[in-house]
Specification:
Length: 442
């Protein structure tokens, strides 16, 4: 083909992520632009964003202060090396993130996504024990149904079978806690279920099996989002913390979804009053506007690395785009906007309204369970016989094409997590439209 031949404007070249490519390309769900609570299709149809994109645009879409900050930064400094050099915005953002995190969670390491941030936290955990002369602590403990992104570290400690089964033997030495969900005990719960704290005691069994001297860290999502919105049972996280303390295990909270207001606080650690040793964040830090992720570590972890000759690198880890200027500028503007509009408190105030609206779908055809916590909701639908996941997929399609609402689908679950700027009226609209879609696939 001559170099000047026009490139066909079709959809085939792009191998889309976590998407059924053939079904999508037959009937695409295209987005052209966005503003505040809405997406717009190329034809100009307005679609209500029930999901904050992928749980990330917490401040709403295309907010002027964030857009302006990115524009200004692009004009001033496109890139500076992440290793051995720095620019001022990375320190400004790190200070702001540290100020939001509880206790002595004060040291912020930047990367570009949740997956990278998870790998970073796992590597820091292993290296931390090594630095302390406990290099035998190499095991990592995750949880069934957990989602920690798609790096080899993340899928190893993660517990979603489809994300793991095709990818070989993964990291060695990983074990898993059981998932915290039990429909018989917990169906239609608003907030944290009363049943299930005892499941944290499974960590005792795991420690007894492997011995504490071989275990580096436990990583959990305080609220498991991607598997379908599972709030932690009351008292569960406290128990995990106590067992980790007893055996010297680091506790890592993956707050990629729960960070930056989703549960009505800056971090879930604050909502639950449980201090992890590290927090993994991404998504909401820039309200999705520029890719960014990171890890917040307690002072003591950072200090453990600060030894050896002054000119020597303390942690052999980082990414070309760690603390990228555009991401840092977006992050600073986003955190300022959250504060100016008091969006975390807004999410907290809206939680009961959101939960009540969600529960209006109880009794709709095929609805097996509805769970809510913060501004998150999971709705489990009964499968179509012989076609797992099809009914929920169809509901998502109907929602987009016919009911003008964006919902997320995870297996048999519809997940909702609107931007924190959502109004009470829009909460009503979201659930009314989701209800329409559920009825359409009855
Ligand atoms: C809890 C959690 N951890 C990690 C990730 C991975 O983030 P990313 O897709 O930015 O790599 C996600 C993404 O949804 C997540 O929900």
């Amino acid at each position: 083909m001559p170099a000047t031949a026009p490139i066909p404007n079709d959809l085939e070249s792009h191998w889309m992520s976590f998407t059924p490519n053939r079904a999508f390309k037959r009937r695409p769900r295209m987005i052209a632009r966005a503003k505040d609570m809405h997406y717009f299709t190329p034809e100009g149809r307005k679609v209500l964003d029930g999901t904050a994109g992928l749980w990330c645009t917490n401040a709403g879409h295309n907010r002027d202060p964030i857009v302006d900050a990115i524009k200004r930064q692009a004009e001033e400094l496109d890139y500076s090396p992440a290793f051995q050099y720095a620019h001022a915005k990375s320190f400004e953002l790190a200070n702001k993130v540290a100020a939001l995190a509880p206790g002595d969670l004060n040291r912020v390491f930047f990367c570009n996504s949740g997956s990278e941030a998870v790998d970073t936290a796992l590597k820091i955990a292993l290296a931390y024990h090594n630095m302390r002369g406990e290099g035998g602590r190499t095991r990592l403990i995750g949880r069934e149904r957990g989602y920690h992104g798609v790096g080899f570290g993340g899928i190893s400690v993660g517990g979603i079978v489809n994300n793991r089964k095709m990818f070989g033997s993964l990291l060695a030495g990983v074990d898993h806690l059981p998932a915290t969900y039990n429909r018989e005990q917990q169906a239609f719960t608003k907030g944290e279920p009363a049943w299930g704290a005892h499941l944290a005691d499974e960590l005792e069994r795991i420690v007894a099996l492997h011995d504490a001297s071989t275990i580096a860290a436990v990583i959990v999502e305080p609220m498991a989002g991607s598997t379908g919105v599972l709030a932690p049972p009351k008292g569960y996280l406290e128990r995990l913390r106590a067992i980790c303390d007893k055996y010297g295990l680091l506790l890592i909270f993956d707050e990629v979804i729960t960070g930056f207001g989703r549960l009505g606080c800056a971090f879930a650690a604050e909502r639950y009053g449980v201090m992890p040793d590290m927090i993994v964040f991404a998504k909401g830090v820039t309200s999705g506007a520029v890719p960014m992720g990171g890890v917040i570590a307690r002072d003591g972890i950072y200090e453990t690395f600060m030894r050896g000759p002054d000119h020597a690198i303390e942690l052999f880890h980082g990414y070309t785009y760690s603390a990228h200027p555009l991401a840092c500028a977006a992050g600073v503007a986003t955190l300022d906007l959250y504060r100016q509009e008091d969006l975390f408190a807004r999410a907290k105030a809206l939680e009961p309204v959101f939960a009540d609206a969600a529960m209006t779908l109880k009794g709709f055809p095929n609805v097996l369970d509805i769970r809510t916590v913060g501004l998150c909701c999971g709705i489990d639908l009964a499968s179509r016989a012989g076609s797992p996941g099809l009914r929920a997929y169809e509901a998502m399609e109907r929602g987009f094409h016919e009911a003008d609402v964006m919902v997320r689908v995870a297996g048999e679950t519809l997940a909702l997590s609107p931007p924190l700027i959502v109004s009470e009226a829009q909460i009503g609209e979201i659930f009314e439209r989701v209800g329409q879609a559920i009825k359409a696939v009855a």
